[in-house]
Automatic annotation (TrEMBL):
<dbReference type="InterPro" id="IPR037171">
    <property type="entry name" value="NagB/RpiA_transferase-like"/>
</dbReference>
<comment type="pathway">
    <text>Carbohydrate degradation; pentose phosphate pathway; D-ribulose 5-phosphate from D-glucose 6-phosphate (oxidative stage): step 2/3.</text>
</comment>
<comment type="function">
    <text>Hydrolysis of 6-phosphogluconolactone to 6-phosphogluconate.</text>
</comment>
<dbReference type="GO" id="GO:0005975">
    <property type="term" value="P:carbohydrate metabolic process"/>
</dbReference>
<keyword id="KW-0378">Hydrolase</keyword>
<dbReference type="InterPro" id="IPR006148">
    <property type="entry name" value="Glc/Gal-6P_isomerase"/>
</dbReference>
<dbReference type="GO" id="GO:0017057">
    <property type="term" value="F:6-phosphogluconolactonase activity"/>
</dbReference>
<dbReference type="GO" id="GO:0006098">
    <property type="term" value="P:pentose-phosphate shunt"/>
</dbReference>
<dbReference type="InterPro" id="IPR039104">
    <property type="entry name" value="6PGL"/>
</dbReference>
<dbReference type="Pfam" id="PF01182">
    <property type="entry name" value="Glucosamine_iso"/>
</dbReference>
<dbReference type="InterPro" id="IPR005900">
    <property type="entry name" value="6-phosphogluconolactonase_DevB"/>
</dbReference>
<feature type="domain" description="Glucosamine/galactosamine-6-phosphate isomerase">
    <location>
        <begin position="12"/>
        <end position="235"/>
    </location>
</feature>
<comment type="similarity">
    <text>Belongs to the glucosamine/galactosamine-6-phosphate isomerase family. 6-phosphogluconolactonase subfamily.</text>
</comment>
<protein>
    <recommendedName>
        <fullName>6-phosphogluconolactonase</fullName>
        <ecNumber>3.1.1.31</ecNumber>
    </recommendedName>
</protein>
Length: 256
C-alpha cells in the first residue's frame, strides 16, 4: 500500500505542512482539469486545516474548489453537530468559494437518512458524471479524514455492516455508535478511488489506536482500510500522537 506517515513537533506545524500539501494537491489537480475536488471530515479537522489555509489565502484558487463532505450528521446545517457548520465557521465563511460549489446534505431530508444519502449520491453523480457518463465511482483529487478513538473514519465504524458496502457511493446509517445516530457517509469504494487521501490525527490520546491502525493492519480497523487503488494515503501526525509508532514507519521532514 502506498503510504507515507509524517510526524511534526506541534499541531501548528501539522497545520502549516497540511496547507502546503493541500496547495500542491490543488495545483496538481488544476494542471489536469479545471477544478479541485476535495472532501472533508468533521471533528478537529476543519480547525486544523483552517489554521494553515487562512494564513496564506492568496495562494489558493478558491473559485476552482468543489467541496464535499466525507460524512455528515443528519441534522440541520446550523446545528452544533453539523460537519458543514464546523467547516463553514472554521474557514469556508472566510474564503470566496462559490456557494454552489459547496455540496451539503439536503436540509429538507435530515429526518430521512436513506433519502438524504440518495440525494447526496445524486449530487456526486451530477458533479462527477454530469453528462451521464458511465462512472463507476468518483475520483476525488483529495479526501481529508480524521480517525476516531475506536479507529473509525467518516461514519464507517468497526464491525458495522457499512464497512462491507461495495456498490453505493453514499450510504446512510441510523445506528451510529457515536451520537448523533443518523448519518450519511462516503463508502470505502469512493475513498479508495481517490487520487490522494490524507488523515490528520493529533494528540497523545491517539497513540494506541495509531499503533493498531498503522502497525497492526491485520486487525482491519476502518481507518486502516483506506487504501487508494491508484492513489496514495498520507498521515499527518504531531509527535504526541506518533510517540508509540515504530521509527521506521515515520518521516519527519523539516517542511513539505
Amino acid at each position: 500500500m502506498p503510504r507515507t506517515v509524517y510526524a511534526f513537533p506541534t499541531v501548528n506545524d501539522v497545520s502549516a505542512s497540511l496547507r502546503d500539501f493541500v496547495l500542491r494537491a490543488q495545483d496538481e489537480a488544476l494542471a489536469k482539469h479545471d477544478r479541485f475536488t476535495i472532501a472533508l471530515s468533521g471533528g478537529s479537522l476543519p480547525a486544523t486545516l483552517a489554521r494553515g489555509l487562512l494564513e496564506h489565502q492568496t495562494a489558493f484558487q478558491w473559485s476552482k474548489w468543489h467541496v464535499f463532505y466525507a460524512d455528515e450528521r443528519c441534522v440541520p446545517l446550523n446545528d452544533a453537530e453539523s460537519n458543514h457548520r464546523l467547516a463553514h465557521e472554521a474557514f469556508l465563511a472566510h474564503v470566496p468559494i462559490p456557494a454552489e460549489q459547496v455540496y451539503t446534505i439536503n436540509p429538507d431530508l435530515v429526518g430521512q437518512p436513506e433519502a438524504a444519502a440518495e440525494d447526496y449520491q445524486h449530487q456526486l453523480m451530477q458533479a462527477f458524471a454530469p453528462t451521464g457518463d458511465d462512472v463507476r465511482f468518483p475520483v476525488f483529487d483529495l479526501i481529508l479524514l480524521g480517525m476516531g478513538p475506536d479507529g473509525h473514519t467518516c461514519s464507517l465504524f468497526p464491525g458495522h455492516p457499512l464497512v462491507n458496502e461495495r456498490t453505493l457511493w453514499v450510504s446512510s446509517l441510523t445506528d451510529s455508535p457515536k451520537p448523533p445516530p443518523s448519518r450519511i457517509t462516503l463508502t470505502f469504494p469512493v475513498l479508495n478511488h481517490a487520487h490522494a487521501v490524507a488523515f490528520v490525527t493529533t494528540g497523545a490520546n491517539k497513540q494506541d489506536m495509531l499503533v493498531r491502525v498503522l502497525d497492526q493492519t491485520e486487525e482491519g480497523l476502518p481507518a486502516g482500510m483506506v487504501n487508494p487503488t491508484a492513489g496514495h494515503v498520507y498521515w499527518f501526525l504531531d509527535e504526541p500522537a506518533a510517540a508509540k509508532l515504530q521509527d521506521s514507519l515515520i518521516d519527519r521532514p523539516a517542511a513539505l
